[in-house]
Amino acid sequence: MCFEAAIKVLLCPSSNSLIFTLSLTFLSSHSLHHLSSCPLSLSTLRCTHPPLHSADKMAMTDLLKAEEIKKALDAFAAETFDPKKFFEMVGMKAMSAENVKKVFQVLDVDGSGFIEEGELKFVLKGFSQEGRDLTDAETSAFLKAADKDGDGKIGIDEFEGLVHE
User: Fold this and answer.
1) Three-state SS for 6?
2) Which of 60, 109, 62, 108 is nearest to 87 (CA)?
3) What are the tens digits of pLDDT across the range 98-130?
4) Is residue 161 within a helix (H) or strand (E), and if so which, with residue range?
């Protein structure tokens, strides 16, 4: 006796959206029984790695110079990550609050308005796909430095505050 699960992905050109359908089937030695089929919402699915930039989402290189990003990533390739030093190296400390908030929006992978701990681990990949993952200790230290209200996530104002601190 086995169960088979399948996720079907359809592109709906009229609304430019994806439709996910989950199908569960019970397999026995004598017969095949279709148990259920239900649509899945994108809001119930969670990415653990940042996706590639879509056409409507701004790329980090639209806001920062690629050579400064590379230099900063190289500096922290083997060194413990220091967000304040990194932000200064990529030129964010000299940016307006408005532009720092645009950087935040690129890093907010799920569009929730917050950078949660899961997204924070991959924050350097938000600057460049060549960026490394933060260690658990680096992720915790970054969150502790930025999360001023103690809710376990970094809001846009907290992020901007850390950059300009």
Assistant:
1) strand
2) 60
3) 999 999 999 998 899 999 998 999 999 999 999
4) helix 156-163
